Amino acid sequence: MKLQPRATKEIAPELNELLVRRAERVRSKTSQVDEENVLWVAEFPIGEETYALPLETLRAAVPLKMVTAVPLSPPHVIGILRFQGQIVTALSLASLLGGRGWREDPAVLLVVDPGFGRLIAIDCERIPKPTGLPHALVEEARARSTGATCEITLPGTRQVQLLDLLRLMDRRQGQDKR
Amino acid sequence: MDPLLEQLLAGFVDEAQEIYDRLTRSLMELEKSPAQGPGFDDLARGLHTLKGSSATLGLEELADLAHRMEDVVLPLRGSAQPLPGPLVDAILKSLDCWMARLRATAAKADLPDLAPSYALLAAVKPAAPAKAAAKTAEPSAKPAEVAADFPAAPAANDDTQADSWRVSTRQVIALLHEVERLREVRLRLDERRRELEKAVVQLDRLGIQAETAEARAVLLGVRRSLVGDGEEAADIVASMEDGLKAISTMPVRTVIDPLRRAVRDLCKATGKQAKLAVVGAEVSLDRRVLEQLRGPLVHLVRNAVDHGLEMPDVREARGKHREGALTIRIEQQGNMLFIEVGDDGAGLDLEQIREAALRRALVAPEDLGNLSTQQLHQLVFRPGFSTRTEATEYSGRGVGLDVVRNQIQALQGHVEVQSVAGQGARFVLTLPADLGSSPVLVVRCGEHQLGIPMAAVESSRAARNGDLRVGRSRVQLDHREQLIPLQDLGALVGLRQPEVPADGQPLLILQSQGRRLALSVDEVLGDRELVIRPLPVEVRDLAAWQGAATLARGELVLILRPDFLVVDDSLTARALHRTALETGGYLVHTASNGRQALEQLRHSAYDVMVCDIGMDEMDGYELTAAVRQRAETDSMPILLVSARDSDNDRQRGTAVGADGFLTKKDCVSGRLLSEVSAVIARRKGAA
User: Fold this and answer.
1) Segment-wise mean pLDDT, segments of 10 residues, chain B, 687 residues
2) Cα of B122 vs its chain's centroid, Å
3) Which domain holds residue A63?
4) Nearest CB to B177: which of A80, A85, A91?
5) Which CATH number describes the domain made up of B3-163?
6) Domain range summary for chain B, segments of one domain joined by +
7) Which of B110, B167, B350, B464 has the fewest Cβ atoms nearer than 10 Å?
8) How many whole angstroms separate alpha carbon B659 and alpha carbon B643?
9) Rounded to a whole number, what is the distance in Å from the CA of B175 to chain A's nearest CA?
10) Phi then psi for B176, rounded to 5 degrees?
11) The CATH number of domain B570-686 is 2.30.40.10
12) How far apart are CA B520 and CA B508, in angstroms?
């Protein structure tokens, strides 16, 4: 069989203009999501707000049903679970953040490494989606924040609360000591 | 330093430590028996090895000191008399100095001066060789000549280099964890086999069908293979566990033996006499635990000699043997280790403890009279506590038993003291010895599976209505003609309100720390051999749980601490109150006594305080009065809870400023939450 080159069709000027605009938009998106200039995060909702934690801290997402409850433990402790041979504590993120509620019952546990040498697990409504946050905005928000979260306002006024797990756990331990 | 020499030196430090320990034992034996026979040979051989090995490594000063020690000892070989005490002292102190110098050399630290040891040895060196030692070499003989006179030292170094490797602790611990994981995998293999069997049974129910016959045959083949694989995996796990246990454990003797030297030295220094008896030194324990136990045991033994034992004349006058008896008893039950350090001395002096507590402001003067004997005993573990008014070389600095307690707590254990005036004192250390598996009884409470160490379970039986004595605030069980308290396990761990067991419900009879308790559970699931692991940091402080273990399906089961079940009912009350209040939407902070509560009130503001009247140290009335005296809390709602329903208690509560009063029975019947809301509302209304 002989292959024939496909003839170029004439396109209407307005359609051409649309295609050019679309191409420009795609090009500009690529520059925004430049891998070197973004912090990759795992994004998920808590109530009406969007939260995120750095993807590098995330070790796994496991079903919440694997947890053994620990009677007499503080209210923010959901229980314990086995993860790669270790016993890890599962904590309620909503409770750690001071009572913000979930819209749905949490179904997933995120096993994370907050950076203090051991893993913990936090609950989540669903498996978070990976997304990139511009480094410049992250640094700016971190410089402003002294708490366990920093608020990042993205283009289009969408807001993301970036979690600092180390600060969150420090604050919790401080409260426990008191 | 040459890297090769550095490596050799590190090995020599370990070898020398073993020789040092052996020499110390030999010297103390030869101080009491004739300086001859295998004991003396061992001493001479050890000194010679120290000399030869240090010379080989170019440590001339150490070789010279070992040579001088030989000079002092060898002339006495064959003597019918024991080695003189001052000579043994001089050699022991010189050995200490020798070892310290070797360690400092290896650590590249400041080297201790050897001159005092030279002086000590010169002072005790025999003027001329003893007659009995006529055939032995002259003290000044060259090392090779001396060596020729007794059997050659076993080539310990050669042996160890040929047959052993130096492996870091971390690598062994990592291997231990891997074996634990392998054991869990083996358990999961069993579970997979059972699941497969279920699948075959389901296929069988469908009848023999051509479509499923092949799948059934495959499944049966896989099941057979899984059985074989499971058995082989079990053998491998058992063999690896045995091997690793041998590597990572040591006999307790290695920690106990040096204590004999400590006792001897302290007796010499204080003029006391003591004999240390050890029971159970052959028990092998995790090296990490043993290393951590060294310090606390030295503290306790020194304390027993210095504080506990009386001077020989005093003992004699009191009708005791001049030589005091020190006893160390070691016992392992399941995953728990018990070490008891006891003496037959004067016991803890309550009057001295009271004076010391006042002098060091550990207790308010007005509270001192209310402390029970047990509470007074507990004061010895407070930081800074010492009954000595002046510090000596051995005690009086107020550093001691609090450090012991902290070190034992760091090992997840606890320490208790028991004492009878004039008869002595016993310190009992209880620790988890978390290596290997131990038998656990798995029970069900509601939807929860919980484990109880079998060591604490005396027996099990079914509840019979005729055997239960149900009172207003507690239930007792008539068990073998003895009334013992009966608790609902679910209520003890805060899972539900207490329930009186139904006829036929399983009961467990537990024993811990000399107390007995009957425990009702919903179902006994059976006993298992489980590896109990510590809980993660976030929940490790909970008094109820000893750890967690993995069951066959891979799920975790919490293991209860037997002493929590048997002793601490106030904790249970707090847990129940907290559960009830949290159900009502309150954020609850708990305190175990009045002082702790006052401390918490200093830092935080609270909507309401629920307070038990019967508390140690400061009761509920005193706490309420103290809270009312502070401006920040003078209007905080306070609800008192009492075990008794008495008008007198109510009136007393109102007089000190309480807003409400409930009995524990009221709390159990669910009135706590409504009464809390009521007292808060009353205060708001008044404002």
Assistant:
1) 68 82 87 82 84 78 89 84 88 91 87 89 72 40 37 39 66 80 78 84 82 85 90 86 78 82 86 88 78 85 89 91 90 74 89 83 76 79 65 47 80 80 87 67 92 87 90 82 88 85 93 78 88 81 83 82 56 63 68 75 80 76 89 86 79 90 72 81 75
2) 44
3) 37-177
4) A85
5) 1.20.120.160
6) 3-163, 169-250, 252-432, 438-561, 570-686
7) B110
8) 17
9) 12
10) -60, -45
11) no
12) 6
CB count within 10 Å of CB B456 equals 24
CATH code 1.10.340.30 for B252-432: no
Q: Answer whether residue A15 is part of any domain.
A: no
Q: Are B477 and B468 in contact (CB under 8 A)?
A: yes
* Cβ of residue A138 closer than 8 Å to a chain B Cβ: no
- Tell me, what CATH number does A163's domain have? 2.40.50.180
Instruction: For A66, name the nearest residue in chain B, comparing CA atoms only.
Output: B555
- Indicate whether A11 belongs to any domain: no
B542 contacts in A (CB within 8 Å)? 70, 72-73
ipTM of this complex prediction, to 2 decimal places = 0.76
Check residue B152 and give its pLDDT: 38
What CATH number labels B438-561?
Answer: 2.40.50.180
Distance from CA of A70 to the nearest CA of B (A): 8
**Is the model's pLDDT at A99 over the cut of 80?**
no
| Cβ of residue A70 closer than 8 Å to a chain B Cβ | yes
> In chain B, which residues have their Cβ closer than 8 Å to the Cβ of A70?
535, 539, 542, 545, 558
Amino acid at B534: P
Reported confidence tier of residue A111, pLDDT bands at 50, 70, 90: very high
Q: Give phi and psi for A6, each to the nearest 5.
A: -75, 135
- No. of helices (H) and no. of strands (E), chain B: 25, 23
> For residue A29, is it within any domain?
no
Bridge partners (DSSP) of residue A163 are A149
Tell me phi and psi for residue A50, to 5 degrees: -105, 130
Whether A70 and B536 lie within 8 Å, measured CB to CB:
no
User: How many domains, chain A?
Assistant: 1
Is any Cβ of chain A less than 8 angstroms from the Cβ of B425?
Answer: no
Which of B542, B556, B582 comes nearest A82 by C-beta?
B556
Which amino acid makes up residue B26? S
Residue among B178, B493, B548 minimizing CB distance to A72: B493
Residue A1 domain flag: no
- Confidence at residue A120, expressed as pLDDT on a 0 to 100 scale: 92
Judge contact between A98 and B545, C-beta under 8 A. Answer: no
